[in-house]
């Protein structure tokens, strides 16, 4: 049985090796929000690597069973949480549904897709690939609750570990668990020479003030 620390480090290693996570402290990325960031994460890349895909699926299942116990349904968050959620649901032998970012603009106008009855407030775990502020994830949680589901919590592959995410999940009364996190990633990256000491300082500064880091880095 792996410890949480071993899982965090193994997932960090996988994500760096296949470039699902890229670190560029001196040539930052621009997020959709406009934030400048020294890190870019695309966990969809894991789906193209069977060994890594299997490991992540198995560890998400173990984390769900450990933290949330028995559940009756798995829900993926569109879009990147859909394939991860489907894999987890298959492993557990459970119904799978997914939650759109907004309702359909045609047909039924549904926001939740799939056929999983909510009888007796069916307990559901939400699957995400990545957590930043948690806003889109919690939008899915609220949609599921509004539809009659009992949301046990959320499981994701990776989190940046922003304080605002912790606060948002706390306010929404939604526990969550992730396989790896920003601190574990930076630790592994430094120890295995993906980055140098100067890069580590820049990455830590970004983690403390992500919304203004780009302005500070440019000055």
TrEMBL record:
Gene Ontology MF annotations: magnesium ion binding; orotate phosphoribosyltransferase activity
Annotated residues for binding of orotate: 132
Highest taxon of the lineage: Bacteria
UniProt keyword annotations, A-Z: Glycosyltransferase, Magnesium, Pyrimidine biosynthesis, Transferase
Catalytic activity, as annotated: orotidine 5'-phosphate + diphosphate = orotate + 5-phospho-alpha-D-ribose 1-diphosphate
Domain annotation Phosphoribosyltransferase: ranges: 65-161
Protein name according to UniProt: Orotate phosphoribosyltransferase
Species: Mucilaginibacter gossypiicola
This protein's encoding gene: pyrE
């Amino acid at each position: 049985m792996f410890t949480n620390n071993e899982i965090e480090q193994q997932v960090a290693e996988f994500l760096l090796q296949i470039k699902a996570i890229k670190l560029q402290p001196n040539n930052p990325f621009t997020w959709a929000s406009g934030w400048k960031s020294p890190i870019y994460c695309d966990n969809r890349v894991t789906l193209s690597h069977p060994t890594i895909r299997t490991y992540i699926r198995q560890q998400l299942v173990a984390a769900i069973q450990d933290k949330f116990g028995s559940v009756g349904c798995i829900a993926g968050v569109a879009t990147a949480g859909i394939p991860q959620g489907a894999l987890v649901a298959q492993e557990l032998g459970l119904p799978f549904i997914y939650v759109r970012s907004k309702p359909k603009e045609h047909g039924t106008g549904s926001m939740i897709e799939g056929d999983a009855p909510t009888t007796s407030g069916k307990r559901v775990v939400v699957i995400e690939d990545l957590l930043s502020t948690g806003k889109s994830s919690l939008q899915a949680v609220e949609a599921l609750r509004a539809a009659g589901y009992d949301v046990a919590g959320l499981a994701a592959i990776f989190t940046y570990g922003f304080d605002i995410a912790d606060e948002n999940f706390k306010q929404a009364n939604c526990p969550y668990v992730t396989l790896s996190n920003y601190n574990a990633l930076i630790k592994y990256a430094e120890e295995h020479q993906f980055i140098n000491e100067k890069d580590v300082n820049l990455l830590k500064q970004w983690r403390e003030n992500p919304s203004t880091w780009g302005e500070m880095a440019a000055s």
